[in-house]
Amino acid sequence: MLITEIKNLINERNSMSLRELSIHFKMEPTAIEPALDILVNKGIVRIVDLKCASCKSSCSGCSDANRPDMLIYQIN
Fold first, then answer.
1. Domains (ranges, CATH) in the chain?
2. Residue 69 binned pLDDT confidence (cut-offs 50, 70, 90)
3. In whole angstroms, what is the distance from residue 52 CA to residue 49 CA?
4. How many Å apart are CA 32 and CA 58, to the nearest integer?
5. Which one-letter DSSP state was computed for residue 61?
6. What is the mean pLDDT of the chain?
7. Residue 41: which H helix or E strand, with range?
8. Residue 59: pLDDT band by 50, 70, 90 thresholds?
9. 43: helix, coil or strand?
10. Are 3 and 67 within 8 A, CB to CB?
11. DSSP state for residue 14 in the 8-state scheme
């Protein structure tokens, strides 16, 4: 199951960006996000709030093109 595979991979690598996960699973970031949302809502995984180096705001302020690189997931 994809959710278990995502959890195990993040645990194995300590943290992964949405882009890294999408490349690994050969899926669009938007296709993986629902599974990540489940893991976040269950408290298994957390999102690390990265700040953009150029604008100093959180990833919500960056362009959609950069979003998969700014969302980093770690095991809680």
1. 2-75 (1.10.10)
2. confident
3. 10
4. 21
5. G
6. 85
7. helix 29-41
8. very low
9. coil
10. no
11. S
Q: Which position has the token pair 């999408």?
A: 22
Quote the tokens at residue 76.
């809680």
Q: How far is CA 12 from CA 15, 19, 45, 66, 68, in A?
A: 8, 17, 13, 24, 20
Q: Which residue has the tokens 């300590």?
A: 14
- Bridge partners, residue 72, by sequence: 17, 48
Question: How far is the C-alpha of 53 from the C-alpha of 28, rounded, in Å?
Answer: 25
The single residue listed with the structure tokens 């970031």 is 29
Please choose, from the candidates 47, 50, 38, the residue with its C-alpha nearest in 3D space to the C-alpha of residue 5.
Answer: 38
Q: Is 25 helix (H, G, I), strand (E, B) or coil?
A: helix
